[in-house]
């Protein structure tokens, strides 16, 4: 999603920064502002100082947001943004890829597809940039044009010019596949997604039709809010642990599902290399708890916890404060989730067919009347 989160593990809280006493940074800023041969804006110095401190952590997920960037970031978590309608992800070699494209957006109309590499934005290279930095490059005012240089897997490069627009994301779509299988596609974990998934399952059950199984499609889902991931997990669990993490000096925090989820309908979770962060939390929880079979390719491996803190001028820093641990005690970060049934990441149709085959097998293994 252009105006916001890309692989964010989800902020559980946003808190104000503690006041720091004046020190060397203030002295240096004052000296530079007063004596440097070329004048420099104080805000530029502050931004450079904060970004430099974050760089010293050696953590690519710790990020600084200017006031307007943080406003856009926060809005994207609510499913509202100004952009062109894409989610981004970062490959292990640093390349920035299109993770998914939202329907009925400028990117979709221009034929932008998941998996393409985003090489340049308005002529500026994305090399060496984080996903958050590239997302900022894509933001702007409604009606403004932005040129994307994209590279396909074949090596062919093309330019597309898109017009930024205000978008309200529709992150949950539901359709019925052959054999009474319900497919629930979740493209990101923005505010309200958990409620939408639960509502979709309830509405389908209310029709009275037979539901053979559920395919929970999390391919290309770069993450989002952790509480929404917990609620989606809870739609298929009857309470219990979803994920936990250790916060320095504060012990272990365990996030649990609400009781009363559907624990009988067979479930397959469909994943790929673009499944990350909060989406990996759901995948691992349902796999570890024996609630779903995971089909696809190994997930991205973004399992660290970020917590945003607002600063006095409305800007924010988002720090990594821990690593997520699955119910069975496995780490996700840098590892990902290994599917139970592997399918080539490059063949989405084959993955869907395999998911249906697995569901048929799960349904066939269920006891029926007359069988023990």
SSE inventory with pairings:
Blueprint: E1 15-16, H1 24-35, H2 42-55, E2 63-65, H3 67-77, E3 80-83, E4 86-90, E5 96-101, H4 106-109, E6 117-121, E7 124-125, H5 131-138, E8 145-151, E9 157-163, E10 165-168, E11 172-177, E12 181-186, H6 193-206, E13 213-217, H7 226-234, E14 241-247, E15 251-256, E16 267-271, H8 278-288, E17 293-296, E18 304-310, E19 316-325, E20 341-342, H9 348-365
Parallel strand pairs: 1-18, 12-13, 13-16, 16-17, 17-20
Antiparallel strand pairs: 2-19, 3-10, 4-5, 6-7, 6-8, 8-9, 11-12, 14-15, 14-19, 18-19
Helix pairs in contact: 6-7, 7-8
Please tell me about this protein's structure:
This protein is an alpha/beta fold and 372 residues long. The protein has nine helices and 20 strands. Helix 6 packs parallel to helix 7. The chain is globular and about 80 Å long.
Mean pLDDT: 86
Describe the main β-sheet briefly: 6 strands, mixed
Q: Could you give the order of the helices and strands?
A: EHHEHEEEHEEHEEEEEHEHEEEHEEEEH
The count of helical stretches stands at 9
Strand content: 25-35%
Residues in helix, %? 25-40%
Q: Would you identify the regions where 5 or more consecutive residues have pLDDT less than 50?
A: 1-14
Number of strands: 20
- The end-to-end span amounts to 49 Å
Q: What structural class do the secondary elements suggest?
A: alpha/beta
Q: Any idea what the shape is?
A: globular
Rg (C-alpha, Å)? 22 Å
């Amino acid at each position: 999603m252009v105006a916001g989160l890309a692989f964010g593990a989800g902020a559980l809280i946003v808190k104000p920064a503690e006041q720091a006493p004046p020190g060397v940074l203030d002295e240096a800023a004052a000296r530079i502002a007063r004596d440097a041969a070329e004048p420099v804006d104080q805000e530029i110095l502050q931004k450079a100082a904060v970004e430099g401190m974050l760089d010293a952590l050696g953590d690519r997920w710790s990020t600084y947001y200017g006031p307007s960037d943080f406003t856009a970031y926060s809005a994207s978590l609510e499913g509202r943004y100004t952009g062109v309608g894409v989610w981004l992800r970062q490959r292990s070699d640093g390349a920035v890829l299109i993770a998914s494209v939202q329907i009925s957006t400028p990117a979709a109309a221009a034929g932008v597809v998941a998996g393409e590499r985003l090489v340049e934005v308005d002529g500026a290279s994305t090399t060496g940039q984080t996903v958050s930095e590239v997302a900022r490059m894509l933001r702007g005012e409604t009606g403004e044009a932005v040129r994307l240089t994209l590279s396909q897997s074949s090596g062919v490069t093309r330019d597309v010019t898109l017009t930024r627009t205000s978008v309200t994301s529709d992150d949950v779509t539901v359709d019925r596949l052959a054999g009474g299988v319900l497919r629930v596609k979740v493209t990101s974990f923005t505010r309200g997604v958990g409620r939408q998934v639960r509502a979709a399952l309830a509405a389908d059950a209310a029709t009275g039709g037979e539901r053979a199984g559920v395919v929970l499609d999390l391919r290309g889902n770069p993450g989002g809010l952790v509480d929404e991931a917990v609620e989606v997990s809870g739609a298929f669990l009857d309470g219990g642990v979803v994920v936990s993490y250790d916060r320095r000096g504060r012990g272990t925090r365990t996030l649990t599902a609400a009781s009363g989820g559907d624990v009988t309908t067979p479930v397959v979770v469909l994943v790929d290399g673009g499944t990350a962060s909060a989406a990996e939390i759901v995948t691992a929880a349902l796999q570890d708890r024996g609630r779903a079979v995971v089909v696809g390719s190994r997930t991205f491996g973004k399992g660290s916890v970020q917590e945003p803190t607002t600063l006095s001028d409305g800007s924010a820093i988002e720090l990594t404060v821990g690593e997520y641990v699955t119910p069975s005690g496995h780490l996700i970060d840098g590892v990902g989730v290994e599917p139970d049934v592997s399918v080539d990441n490059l063949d989405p149709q084959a993955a869907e067919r395999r998911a249906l085959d697995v569901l048929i097998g799960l349904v066939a293994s269920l006891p029926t009347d007359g069988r023990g």
